[in-house]
Amino acid sequence: FLGLSKNAFIAAAPVGRFSTSPRTWTPPRARGDVSTATQVWKKPSDIWVEPTLPQDLVEEAAKEGFRLRPKYSYMKIGYVISDKNKKTRVAHVEYFLFNAKYGAYYKRSKKFHYHDEYETSKLGDVVLIAPSRKVSQMKHYRLIEVVKKHTAPVRV
């Protein structure tokens, strides 16, 4: 059907539109579904959605001189949620994962303990951290730079 295999067609179909079982699957035209009969469904791997940020946020970031994405993939950008321990900080890092079945991105977050030798980062700062040798049981990241200082009070 339209150059796609049956399995690719089923995998890319939205939830609730078509049955996902190959035994009960019928093409849209055979069922008389005219609205989707002319629509070509692509495999999720063929669809690339470029995640975009609001333009005003990008411009504001450029003016203030900090970057929104890390330079290398192993580095992480997050904000400090705890600075109670000596030379140890906790950063909250948000990242996106891609679901191949539904062809959509979803957000996940994780806390990373990192080593801050000179205690330069404070609560609410945006920081860039990178993996390092294991410093303690929880710490295996180190501070690269404080990307942006936080001036307003932070809500945790």
From TrEMBL:
Keywords: Ribonucleoprotein, Ribosomal protein. This is 30S ribosomal protein S17, chloroplastic. One of its GO terms (biological process) is translation. One of its GO terms (cellular component) is cytosolic small ribosomal subunit. The keyword tRNA-binding does not apply. Belongs to the universal ribosomal protein uS17 family. It comes from the Eukaryota. Pfam families: Ribosomal_S17 (PF00366). InterPro entries: NA-bd_OB-fold, Ribosomal_uS17. GO terms for molecular function: structural constituent of ribosome.
